Amino acid sequence: MNTIIQNILVFVAIAFAFIFLIRKFIWKKSKSKKVCGGDDGCGCH
Amino acid sequence: MSKQINVALIGNPNTGKTSVFNALTGLNQQVGNYPGITVEKKEGVCKLSRGIKAHIIDLPGTYSLNASSLDENVVIELLLNKNDKDFPDIAVVVSDVENLKRNLLLFTQIKDLEIPTLLVINMADRMRYKGISLDIDYLEAELQTKIALISTRKKEGIDNLKNLIANYKELSVTPCINPSDIDKEYFDNLQKAFPNQLLYKLWLVITQDVNFGKTDRKEIEAVANFKTKSKADLKRLQQKETIKRYQFINNALKHGQTIDASQAKDLRSKLDRILTHRIWGYFIFFVILLTIFQAIYDWSSVPMDFIDSAFASLSEWTKIQLPQGAFTDLLAEGIIPGLGGIVIFIPQIAFLFLFISVLEESGYMSRVVFLMDRIMRRFGLSGKSVVPLISGTACAIPAIMATRNIESWKERLITILVTPFTTCSARLPVYLIIISLIIPEGRFLGLGYQALTLMLLYFIGFGIAVLSAYILNKVLKIRSKTFFVVEMPNYKLPMFKNVAITVLEKTKSFVFGAGKIILAISIILWFLASYGPGDNFNNAESIINTEYASQQLSEDEINQHIASYKLEHSYIGIAGHAIEPAIRPLGYDWKIGIAIVSSFAAREVFVGTLATIYSVGSDDEATIKNRMAAEVNPILGGPLFNFASGISLLLFYAFAMQCMSTLAIVKRETNSWKWPTLQLFIMSGFAYVVALIAYQLLK
User: Fold this and answer.
1) B57: which DSSP letter?
2) Which of A6, A14, A18 is the closest to B328 by Cβ?
3) Could you say which of B23, B74, B189, B275 has the lowest number of CB atoms within 10 Å?
4) Among the CATH numbers 2.40.50.140, 3.40.50.1980, 3.40.50.300, 3.30.70.100, which is that of B3-263?
5) Domain segments of chain B as ranges
6) DSSP string spanning B141-176?
7) How many CB pairs under 8 A join A and B?
């Protein structure tokens, strides 16, 4: 029983870690298009 | 029910605006970004009288509402957009008692937008040193506002300021200047064309070539079409406006302010002569740097040793106290050592930021910028490039964002490209652990070898950044104009509260920002190091038992062989062996290879990764440093982290582009993948070659 619970906890931790890293570096929330350097002619460079 | 009002804190740079913000909000503040752009947004809450709560926004420092950089755009965007949720109920303009005339230009512009505007005159404690006296009642009448004379340093006048903010409805919104006085015909026509609009707002919209992301675009375009004058004429009108404003300010100050130079007790000029001297200036800066690096080492060693052994004990304790199983192993061998690898560097990072913050607060950093401008120019950089290069010692990301105030695109691009060479705080953990392993603890003229090595690495980073800038300046064919203006603030004793908040904020963001990534990577690494495919991994115990059956080994030794065999045949071991041929010429084994690959996400992950890899299967209580020191080179024998491989690693980390977040910000700032891709390949390729040469020469 203890082994099963420990294994479940490990896989939950790994899943959380994996999802966190994916969200952090690969799949990011889309941001407003009004960004410096975009096509809105903000004139920053 | 309590009422909340929006308070915009606005002012010229170096007026002590942030000190006022800290005095009003204390620790009730948070730092974020403005939506869609990467200009820092500081907000906080302050309780006023009669149950009123003030939501205070510390806007970026600006000299006027004629914006020339993105930071300044943020101010003008907010003040022009009544629909913005942060549109201020009251604008609090912070000025410095010694530069009142210049500071009042911004005040008159904001007041003309008919926003209730309160004038704060800060640094009142300096009045007697400068022989300044003010007739506040007269100034209030002339400027048609209320004035809060305060000293954030002496904590004087803050309660009065809070009362004045709470009574913001009593403030007059009468403009200082009538735009028709600038050019009657033009402004009367403009008002006729848009009768329901505020004239000064219309004028700002017409003259500002900025990104009004949040304002009503249609409304602005309609106004922008009303261009009855050429650009040159508009510029001339702007100049007339500025002259009118200064006439108004001069009138107010003529009787409202008296400066008796004979009463001034000024040390500033004397100090400036020494600190910006063409020889002594550099010598003093060098001595200050030496002191800083020595102090970082000397003062941090006790808390660092304590943290290191505390995490080792915690890991051991967890293993003993919790029921045996995979999750206990994950905690003891993955999470705790991984976190220990970051927490251990808190003392050194806190001390580094303490010194940087003290130098900034005291006004010395501006002298350094001025001093270094003489050198920077020769390498195609702006004097303003020094700020990103110095802030790059904290983190390249805000440093790259800080290039936005460099007007010349070529200088800005070069600064963006070379800033990642400066030694950021993420490199510090890597440097510190490797230096402690390969450089002896002895001293030379009272200075530790280890501290000198660390300082040398900072110089190498800075030197390569400047050298690369020189090459890029020759290679890049971009034409642009360049000029350099820097304000020299007065020297002042650093305020403890400001220094403490900076140290706390920077350390917190380092620990939590990097800590979350390190925790996640530690978990994944532990999994990859604790599980593996195929029979070799699954039957490790029987294979080792058979192999060593003839030898008389203790149970501990057998267990160590099993752990080592399992690690070698785990997922991470297989990946490490696959890349080993590429890194072996640099003096690294597959474990270091894994740490290099995993630290591509963020450099500081390197130590955490090694801590996790070396912890897997290890039963004894040992610190990270001891485990690394005990590693043996599998091919040559002897310590894996010896002088040659250590120097090679230090140089690799000094030059390699090991930071995904920096690449992302470079892409964003240059609006192109070309520059971050070039940065990645050139920096990492250069790092590989230098590390290879260093190892081959020193081995």
Assistant:
1) E
2) A6
3) B189
4) 3.40.50.300
5) 3-263, 280-475
6) HHHTS-EEE-BTTTTBSHHHHHHHHHTGGGS----S
7) 91
Out of B34-48, B58-72, B360-374, B626-640, the most confident range is B360-374
Measured between beta carbons, which residues in chain A are less than 8 angstroms from residue B37? 34-36
Tens digits of residue pLDDT in B84-138: 888 999 999 999 888 888 899 999 999 999 999 999 999 888 887 777 888 999 9
Query: Cα–Cα distances in Å, from B135 out to B10, B139, B141, B256?
Result: 23, 6, 10, 5
DSSP letters, B588-630, are --HHHHHHHHHTTSBTTHHHHHHHHHHHTT--S---HHHHHHH
Q: For chain A, say whether B211 makes contact (Cβ under 8 Å).
A: yes
Please report the DSSP string for B6-25 in residue order: EEEEEE-TTSSHHHHHHHHH
Q: Does B70 touch chain A (CB under 8 A)?
A: yes
Residue B11, annotated as binding a ligand: yes
Q: How far apart are CA B454 and CA B444, in angstroms?
A: 14
Rounded mean pLDDT of chain A? 66
Query: How high is the pLDDT of residue B378?
Result: 82
Of B325, B412, B671, the CB nearest to A3: B325
pTM for the model: 0.60
CA distance B46 to A30: 33
B210 CB neighbours in chain A (<8 A) are 42-43
Task: Show which residues on chain A lie within 8 Å of chain B, measured between beta carbons.
Answer: 2-3, 5-7, 9-10, 13-14, 16-18, 20-21, 24-25, 31-38, 40-45
The verdict on whether residue B159 carries a ligand-binding annotation is no
Helix (H, G, I), strand (E, B) or coil at B95: strand
CA distances from B122 to B72, B100, B170, B362, B470 (A): 21, 10, 22, 16, 42
Report the DSSP pairing between strands B147-149 and B257-259.
unpaired
Contact A37 B670 (CB under 8 A): yes
| pLDDT band, very low/low/confident/very high, at B9 (cuts 50, 70, 90) | very high
Distance CA B519, CA B340 (A): 10
Q: Which of B57-71, B90-104, B358-372 has the lowest mean pLDDT?
A: B57-71
The band of B6, judged by pLDDT with boundaries at 50, 70 and 90, is: very high
Is B670 at the interface with chain A, CB within 8 A? yes
Tally Cβ neighbours within 10 Å of residue B128: 12
